[in-house]
Amino acid sequence: MGCNLFTFAKPHSLRSPTQIRVCCGKLQGERISRAAILSYDKSSNENYISHRLVSNVLREDTQPFDKDATIRIRTQMHSEEAEGYVDLYWYLEHDPEHQHNTRFLVTKTDDPPYDAVLGKADARRYGLATRQGRR
Fold first, then answer.
1. In sequence order, what E strands does 8-132 have?
2. CA distances from 61 to 17, 39, 75, 92, 132 (A)
3. Sign of the dihedral through C-alpha 89, 95, 97, 100
4. Domain ranges of the chain
5. What is the Cα–Cα distance from 115 to 37, expressed in whole angstroms?
6. What is the CATH number assigned to the segment(s) 18-125?
7. What is the DSSP string of 94-128?
8. Which of the residues 42, 52, 72, 97 has an alpha carbon 20 to 30 A from that of 30?
9. For residue 64, is the peptide bond before it cis, meaning its omega torsion is within 30 degrees of 0?
10. Pairing of strands 79-92, 18-27
11. Does the reported pTM lie above 0.85?
């Protein structure tokens, strides 16, 4: 299944973790995608992704921050440093018609226990987390 970048996304309810496909590159003119596991981190305000997934699997370039900028991401386990960011199109493995474009911070951790993680805001947007105090 190729990646149609012009399909409009609609809100979905996700379970965490969930299997997704991330769009990356082209093969013989067709856009291709790779499998990844998406989860959420209720303690983080940022979306983040494994450097290994971005560079070795997706073969995407990480966009660097300003030369002197150091960005730290607060995760459930500890604080991690980000080396840059990447904007990716992805979709639920069982729903390729509804694609999402998300900015992820790329962590420097060599072999983290995650592929891609949504922070609080996007986790709420996709139904992975609920707002505190809502009834």
1. 18-27, 30-40, 48-49, 63-64, 71-74, 79-92, 95-107, 116-118
2. 25, 22, 23, 23, 36
3. negative
4. 18-125
5. 6
6. 2.40.70
7. TEEEEEEEEEEEEE--SS-S-SEEE-HHHHHHTTS
8. 52
9. no
10. antiparallel
11. no
